Amino acid sequence: MSPTAAPAGPLAYFDHAATVPLRPEVALAMAPFAADRFGNASGSHRLARDARAALEDAREEIASLLGARPAEVVFTGGGTESDNLAVFGVLAACERQRPAIVCSAIEHAAVLAPARAAAGGAGRVRGLDRAELRVAAVDRTGVIDLGALEECLGDDVALVSVMLANNEVGTVQPLAEAAAVVRRRAPGAALHTDAVQAAPFLDVARAAAAADLVTLSAHKLGGPKGTGVLVVREGTPLRPLVFGGGQERERRSGTHDVAGAVGMAAALRESVAHRQEEGARVAALRDRLADGLLSSIPGTVESAPRELVLPGHAHLRFAGVEQEELLVLLDEAGVCASAGSACASGAIEPSHVLLAMGVGGRDARSAVRFTLGATSSELDVQLALTATRAAVERLRH
Amino acid sequence: MSGGVDSSVAAALLVEAGHDVIGATLKLWGGPSDSGCCSVADVDDARRVAQQLGIAHHVFDLSEEFEAAVVTPYVAAHAAARTPNPCIECNRHIKFDRLLARARRMGFDALATGHHARVERHAGRFRLLRGVDAAKDQSYVLSMLGQDQLSSVVLPVGALTKDEVRAHAAGLGLRTAGKPDSQDVCFIASTDGRRGFLGRRLSLRPGRVVDALSGAEVGAVDAVELVTVGQRRGMGHDPAGARRYVVAVDPAARRVLVAGAAAASIGRVALVPDSLAWVDGPLGHGARAVAQVSAHGRPAACIFEGDGTQPAIVFGAAQRPVAPGQTIALYALDDPAAVVGSGIAA
Asked: Which ipTM score applies to this complex?
């Protein structure tokens, strides 16, 4: 047994981009499937039919909330699996000798890593490494450069992946404009968007309408971890990564996680129902936090223009401060923040997002990401303001 | 916390003593490696121990600093046919410099490690002593520490034997209790070896082996950069059947000089002037001390010469040659457990 990890003092959670707690409505919706409604949705008896009905209820609800048809919704084991399925699934279905994959420079590792592997780079899988990877630059504000995207495109492109909003700095990407460029210059390409980070705040049905493949993750919406969706629009060529019983219309085998699917549907429903007022509330809190830090700590800059980022994101750099040290002090003060992504060891990785935006070295290592969401309160913001001011002052002393 | 048993128990002892502790693991190396500072499995072990102790755990990425202060100089030293000690340079520049500065900035009173050595305070001054387990003593690799660092360094396991350390870890149910000691250089994988590692960063060049007395060519090596002064392996025997030792390596001429044991023995070792480091003030010229020239080398009486521009130590009895680049730790003659300071062989 380990002692409990939660500290005794006040706790302020500023890592909603990493994960959020399960919504009470979600836990309630899932509970029966961890108890007496345990059937395998692939069977034919009454318990199996009951599970299948719940699964299809969830699928229809998710489809409707995402502006997709039920048959286009593929349940997966999470956002990372959905991204991998998009990259390798499209590549495996492509007839070309040497297809190209195009993605923005600020994609999540769940897109970049499979794309690199598919192009024969790190982690290459023999037989699935015949692609060419072209990376489209972003500008200094963290938004994809549509001219650069256009230059990457051509008849050989099988897949284009442009995220709906970036997970680190929070910038919302012009997906509709990107889609127009893709349709014009690479009409044969499938367009994928990772909407994991955007989903809590944006209307994915509208914002990702132009995409052929859309990745979502349940746990960022207050659903369970380990459940995701890949929307695969009718007619998009895709081969599976996981073979077996042929579930999900042969696109993702494996016994259905009915509880996960039901939880995801409930989470998306709640999230969509409260999106507008929650977005406004969270943005106001985020503004108080960001403005408070900018005005009270000299040498603080915002990594991306406020009007371009998601309502919950405050990505700030504190000149002369090492993020690793600041995060320790914030943690000691009960403020849970982060700095982009961690590598396998748990160390903070040098940010490829900041680097793509022209920010490197010590400057990049002074960044901390505060992400707010459903649980955020005025008290949290006060605590973070006080703790961050004190910590930066100490570290600069 | 490296993920080894010593730093695990160091953390445990501090927690048991009531200190407010956080665990830190350094990510020093991004390349392939089996152990030490770098592997994910070791970081996982350190994190798990921290969980069991109920303390926070953080991973600090000092890999850029490690590359600049340890790896690059290591490669450059080999290119110049010197034999560096990267663990000592890591302690000097990373653990007891960058990490200590970080701990101080964050407001911690001290930095603790799992080294087998002891720090004692007497009348406001700090002494650095050998660990109580003679076989595991690591005071040699800390012999460059001075008062400023020692004032903020805690070495909890130095008062225990290795068996006691393992027993303590086992008693707490820590998964590191039975882990083997780390060996060798942490950034060189055992499957790769020094040759593989250096071969990618240097062009290893073959050289001639020449008898230092006669000048006769007596053999060849395939990489002069991998030859160490004092080495016997691969140097063969003289006509009388006695083993030959390397006494000098000239990388520019690609020449390795060898001699028999008697001729190879030395009495005096010059030290790099700016490498001298003192625990609590320098030894005077002509002062007597005890020198140790490797991590577990046999201590030998010596005299410190420090009056000129070229400091040196002079041994009382002839010694095997000391490779340039090796650290020589000096201990007090009247208290052989007490580190006085150190220098690097010129």
From this structure: 0.88
